[in-house]
Each structure stands twice: as structure tokens, then as C-alpha cells.
């Protein structure tokens, strides 16, 4: 007999009850690298500070799992439990197993059904465009349980694939940041309430306390990115680059630390831009307080900003996991002007001089770009290994709203613009011939130096 489901508490004011749901991942593969639905957590935070009561059901979190969850890996990362499901018809050609990652579907349904009192509105997010099947499934469950409760779908799928979402999602679409004036006003009007004042630092403050006994937490000091890389849709998702207040960020770190969290992952797209605005004051406070924590940068840092001083300060503050965005060593034909060979080699030396171990440093190399010469990828892998660093292939995801998407549509054999499932980087959408097991094995061995 299954154990009774734990009570999911409402927290906040006496206003409307807003439920947030982070759906399952539906994909050929998934691994937890400090994953949190940062956009949803920002939305829940701003409505709670505006007087609402909020609750969270995260299908990717083991907090209330009554099923066996894989043991955490290094620094809180690790595998998700998974259940093999039918591959969506458009992807039926793939010779790979397709799975639902996270909590069992029936357990999530029982969790939602147990919520009392019922919500006045439901917010569902989508982290990747091609994970939308999980979001649509959650919306259907919510519609079945509470047919008259307004449902809102946000995140990358709703924002970047709006026409597709409008046809398939049984929900109001929230396209772009909720703190945008039109979105903020529209949300309250759709739940028949007057629009409250938008809280200060909306979008940069997160409801991290909604996770009970978390294995890790995140730090968000900025939204958006001042750069415009061809393969990235950051500007389409967050048009403006904004940075937060270091006192609020420090308070969030301290609060999570007091709850027992020791691993923190930065979620900034441009962590080292204007570090004096919030990063250095926050890290100085952490260092001065003697907090024994570990910091991680799963989003690649900009190598040209890794001066000797920056590397020393990051090391002193407790940075453990370093990820760099090299992208390619074909410096004469890069897709951007962010990095020269001299800047790359100087940044690499500065990290080592600051005391970072080679095992701490991973370097992302782009793979599968439209028209990419894969010999250049091999050269980049060899180049990174010559430094003693660990190369990682960053498989290209064709993202609507990115400058390169039109080129991807021309290069791909799949209708990328019509069906978001084809935007999945697991199928190698812009590599001639697509995903191939023999080639996958070849690249795996190459990364290992074999």
C-alpha cells in the first residue's frame, strides 16, 4: 500500500492561492546539473510578495518522493528516476528509448489532488521547448482536477513557440518575463483581481524556500545577457540585461546556508559582467562570514574576463566547478568576437595560477552547428585536452528567437519551425544524417582521449 502523500503547504499572504508546477522532463536522456525552474520561482516570489499565497510541486525534486530516487552524485548533481514511455510520433525514427524523468505520473496526480484548499490559479513552466509534452500533460491533469481554475503556461515553449503552444496548450500563455508590465497586469485581470504594485527586484528574487531540505540551491544575480550570440535566445526570453542588489543576494545565500545547503550554482548568463555591481560584494560577504560553501558555474563563464584578480577572488570565495565557453578553436572564423586565442590562453593560465585543479575545469565545445566542419570540433577537443582540461561537447539546440535559427532551419532535414520536438539536441538536428550510435561512441572515446 502506498504511503499517504505529504501535505503541500501554502505560504504567503491572504490573497489568491497560486500553485506553481515544474513538469517532468520527456526526452531520450536527462541528468540533473543543479536544475531549478528559475523563471517559475521568480514568478511565485513576485506574486507572493504582492500578497498571494503560493505552493510548489516540482516533478524533478525528490523532496516528497515515495519512490526510489537515485543516490545524489557529486555536489548534489545526479540522475533522475525515469519511466520509459512511448516515443512521440514525430521522433519515432530514433533508435533510442524515450522516457519521462522525475516523479511517477500517478504520484504527481495524487499530489495535486491532495492540495487543500484548492488553488485559485496554476502556473506551469517549460524549461526546454521540446520538453513541452510534460507541460501539456500537467495542464491536462490540472484541467481535470479543477476545470474552472485559470491555468497559465510560461517558459521557453510558451515564449518561443507561441503559435504551436496556442494550438496545443489548454492554458493562457505567458510569453516573456512575468514582470513585464503587460504580463503582470494580464495575469491579475485573468484571475479577476486588481493589479497590485510590482514588487522591487521582481524577476531577480526567488522563492527558494519552497524546497524542503534541498541538496543544493542557486544564485541569480542577473537576468538576460548583454551579448547576442548567434546560437542563443537569451535576448528573446529576457530582452533587457538587469542586475540585482548584492544585499538581497547575500541574504538569500545566508538563508539557504542556514537551512543546510552547501552547494550553490550560479544561474547567470553573464556572471562576470560588472562584477562590482553585485558579485564581488556578495562573495566578499560570504568570505568574511566564513561560510564553508561550494560554488558552481554550470553556465559557461566568459573566458576573456578571467583576469588574475578575478580568478583569485573566485577561488577564495569557494568556486569548485568551473565551466568555460570556448565553443571553437577556429579563432579566425568564430561566430562572435567574444574571444581571441591570446585571451583564451591567458584565461586558462590565470585559472591554474589561482590554484584551480585541472579536475575542476570543464570546457564547452559547440557540436552540431549548421554547416559545421566536424574536423574543427576534433581539433578543439585535442586543443583542450592538451591544456589538461576536460572537454565537453555542447550539442547545438536550434532555438526559435536566436539569430542562427533561420540558418538551422535551412540546414536541418527536420521541420524545426513547425514542431518543437525536432529542436531536441539529442537527435543532432543539424548534423547530416542526424544522430548515429557509432558516431556517438566515437565522440565519447575522443573526449576521453582514447
From TrEMBL:
InterPro entries: Aldolase_TIM, BchE-like, Elp3/MiaA/NifB-like_rSAM, rSAM, rSAM_sf. Pfam families: Radical_SAM (PF04055). The keyword Metal-binding applies. It comes from the Bacteria. It comes from Pseudodesulfovibrio portus. The keyword Flavoprotein does not apply. Signal peptide: none annotated. Its cofactor is [4Fe-4S] cluster. Coiled coil: none annotated. SMART domains: Elp3. This is B12-binding domain-containing radical SAM protein. Keywords: Iron, Iron-sulfur, Metal-binding, S-adenosyl-L-methionine. Residues 211-430 form the Radical SAM core domain.
Amino acid at each position: 500500500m502506498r504511503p499517504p502523500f505529504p501535505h503541500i503547504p501554502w505560504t504567503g499572504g491572504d490573497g489568491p492561492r497560486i500553485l506553481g508546477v515544474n513538469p517532468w522532463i520527456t526526452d531520450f536522456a536527462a541528468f540533473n546539473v543543479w536544475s531549478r525552474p528559475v523563471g517559475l520561482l521568480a514568478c511565485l516570489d513576485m506574486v507572493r510578495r504582492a500578497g498571494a499565497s503560493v505552493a510548489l510541486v516540482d516533478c524533478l525534486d525528490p523532496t516528497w518522493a515515495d519512490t526510489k530516487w537515485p543516490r545524489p552524485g557529486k555536489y548534489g548533481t545526479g540522475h533522475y528516476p525515469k519511466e520509459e514511455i512511448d516515443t512521440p510520433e514525430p521522433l519515432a525514427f530514433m533508435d533510442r528509448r524515450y522516457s519521462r524523468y522525475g516523479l511517477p505520473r500517478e504520484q504527481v496526480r495524487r499530489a495535486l489532488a491532495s492540495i487543500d484548499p484548492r488553488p485559485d490559479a496554476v502556473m506551469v513552466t517549460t524549461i526546454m521547448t521540446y520538453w513541452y509534452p510534460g507541460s501539456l500533460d500537467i495542464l491536462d491533469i490540472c484541467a481535470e482536477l479543477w476545470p474552472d481554475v485559470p491555468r497559465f503556461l510560461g517558459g521557453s515553449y510558451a515564449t518561443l513557440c507561441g503559435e504551436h503552444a496556442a494550438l496545443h496548450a489548454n492554458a493562457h500563455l505567458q510569453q516573456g518575463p512575468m514582470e513585464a508590465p503587460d504580463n503582470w497586469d494580464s495575469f491579475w485581470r485573468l484571475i479577476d483581481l486588481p493589479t497590485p504594485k510590482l514588487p522591487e527586484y521582481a524577476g531577480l528574487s526567488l522563492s527558494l524556500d519552497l524546497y524542503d531540505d534541498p541538496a543544493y540551491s542557486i544564485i541569480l544575480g542577473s537576468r538576460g545577457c548583454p551579448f547576442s550570440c548567434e546560437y542563443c535566445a537569451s535576448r528573446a526570453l529576457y530582452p533587457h540585461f538587469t542586475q540585482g542588489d548584492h544585499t538581497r543576494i547575500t541574504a538569500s545565500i545566508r538563508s539557504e546556508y542556514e537551512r543546510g545547503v552547501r552547494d550553490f550554482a550560479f544561474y547567470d548568463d553573464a556572471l562576470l559582467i560588472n562584477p562590482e555591481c553585485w558579485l564581488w560584494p556578495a562573495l566578499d560577504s560570504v568570505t568574511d562570514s566564513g561560510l564553508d560553501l561550494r560554488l558552481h558555474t554550470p553556465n559557461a563563464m566568459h573566458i576573456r574576463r578571467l583576469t588574475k584578480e578575478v580568478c583569485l577572488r573566485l577561488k577564495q570565495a569557494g568556486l569548485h566547478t568551473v565551466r568555460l565557453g570556448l565553443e571553437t578553436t577556429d579563432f579566425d572564423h568564430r561566430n562572435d568576437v567574444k574571444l581571441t586565442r591570446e585571451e583564451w590562453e591567458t584565461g586558462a593560465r590565470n585559472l591554474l595560477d589561482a590554484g584551480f585543479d585541472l579536475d575542476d575545469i570543464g570546457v564547452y565545445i559547440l557540436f552540431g552547428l549548421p554547416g559545421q566542419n566536424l574536423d574543427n570540433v576534433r581539433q578543439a577537443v585535442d586543443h583542450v585536452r592538451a591544456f589538461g582540461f576536460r572537454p565537453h561537447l555542447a550539442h547545438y539546440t536550434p532555438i526559435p528567437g536566436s539569430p542562427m535559427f533561420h540558418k538551422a532551419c535551412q540546414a536541418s532535414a527536420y521541420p524545426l519551425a513547425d514542431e518543437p520536438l525536432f529542436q531536441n539536441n539529442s537527435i543532432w538536428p543539424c548534423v547530416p544524417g542526424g544522430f548515429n550510435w557509432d558516431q556517438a561512441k566515437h565522440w565519447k572515446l575522443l573526449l576521453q582521449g582514447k
